[in-house]
Amino acid sequence: MLGPDANKIFTTLLKLEEPWFVENVEATPERVDIYLSTRAKALVECPVCGKRCKVHDRVQRTWRDSDVRDAECFITAKIPRCECPKCGVKQIAVPWARENISFTESFERRAMSLMQRMPLTKAAEFMHVGTWVLEGILRYHVQRSLDRMDLSNVRNILLDETSCKRGHRYITVIADADTKGIIFMTEGKGSDSLRSFSDWLIAHNGDPSRIKLVSCDFSRSFLSGINEHLPRADIVYDRFHLVKMVNDALDKIRSKNQMNGSRHKWMRFKLMKNGKDLSDDDKRKIFDIKNDNSVLGLAYEMKESLIQLYDYPDISAASEHVKQWLSWVDSKGEAPMKAVGRTVSRHFHRILNWYIHKMSNGFLEGLNGMIQTTKRIGRGYPNTQNFMTMIFFRHGRLDI
Ligand SMILES: [Zn+2]
User: What's the CA-to-centroid distance between 84 and ligand 1, angstroms?
Assistant: First the structure.
């Protein structure tokens, strides 16, 4: 027992108001216990109707509070149950914690702020609790702000999928292209995910028929999902996915046509880079590769030429370029390049829509990188729901 002065100090620190008061404080360097009660004869508010009533009896409960220096801190209180003539016997609400949780609001605030700045395991270490405790707190706050999320202004979206575990479990991620905040995630991919998104929009004051633009990859199931569930949306096929597709084709051709094997393998990432970004030295090496392997050289030229489609001043020049590229690939391309040609031809207008809307998934691709890092560190996130909660928390621009 530390005496009346300590009680006063903790009354101030806890911002306690009548009828609550600090009855006692016990402290060691490792642990502080604060005991609270209400004044004996004070009336208390019924949590249902707000009427001030007599105390019927008291129940004792303990909460974990923020640490005091290095000591773990606990609050134990005798909570009055009021005797309301209208509502019966009810336990009153306490001002330092939300209902049915054994941590104080101060503890939750500190935990949330740490999780914003550091990995979960580190934050748990600082707070002296298991990660599952912090995950529970995070889930509550993220869910609460998701429930309040207002999507009435969403018009343009970025759509992508990412794998959250080893063994191909997919998550569909949708961001608002204008605010760059993630607004939706669901397990799975394709058309079903778009139906869930449409329901989600409606539940959050949005309107699927007001979505004007979607930037996404070339997946057929996305295409049919968009047509079905976002009926007025136009599509811009994402340039990052186009570049990836043509690079994958180039890589197939490279691995099938390795004459000077090890050197080509070593050059693999250089071959996939945009030629404009190469050093003079790398340009020379690629020039040599083209000289001693005409098949690979030609595929490389085709790749470089296709990605130039984004360098034109206007859409008509770009579409002329793509048409020429298509006939070149059709007559001279290897099978993987011809397959790219077929996709490009099928989605010609949606690819060139980039010139009208200048929209791309760059933001989501960056995010994907971070997601993959999180996954590697965590050796695959054990729980998809917690994984999505963390992504919403870090990239959802939520009002938490
Ligand atoms: Zn009442």
Answer: 5
Distance from the alpha carbon of residue 51 to the mean position of ligand 1, in angstroms? 6
Tokens for 14?
A: 């806890």
Q: Is residue 131 a part of any domain in this protein? A: no
**Quick one: pLDDT at residue 165?**
63
Last residue of a domain, one of 69, 100, 131: 100
Residue 316 Cα to ligand 1 middle (Å): 72
CA 61 vs CA 58, 80, 309, 385: distances in Å: 10, 11, 67, 30
Domain that holds residue 78: 1-100
Q: Are residues 230 and 96 in the same domain?
A: no
- Are 207 and 59 members of one domain? no
Ligand 1 centroid–CA 49 distance in Å is: 4
Question: pLDDT tens for residues 158-168?
Answer: 998 887 665 56
pTM for the structure as a whole: 0.80
Query: Ligand 1 center to residue 143 CA distance, Å?
Result: 29
Distance of CA 137 from the midpoint of ligand 1 (Å):
30
Q: What is the pLDDT of residues 352-400, one digit of tens each?
A: 999 998 888 877 877 777 676 666 555 445 577 778 888 888 888 888 8
Ligand 1: centre distance to CA 105 (Å) = 25
Q: How far is the CA of 43 from the centre of ligand 1 (A)?
A: 13
Q: What's the rounded Cα separation, in Å, for the pair 349 and 235?
A: 9
- Beta bridge partner(s), residue 182: 175
In a domain, 138, yes or no: no
Ligand 1 centre from 90 Cα, in Å? 8
Asked if residue 285 belongs to a domain, the reply is yes
C-alpha of residue 52 to centroid of ligand 1, in Å = 8
| 217 and 253 inside one domain | no
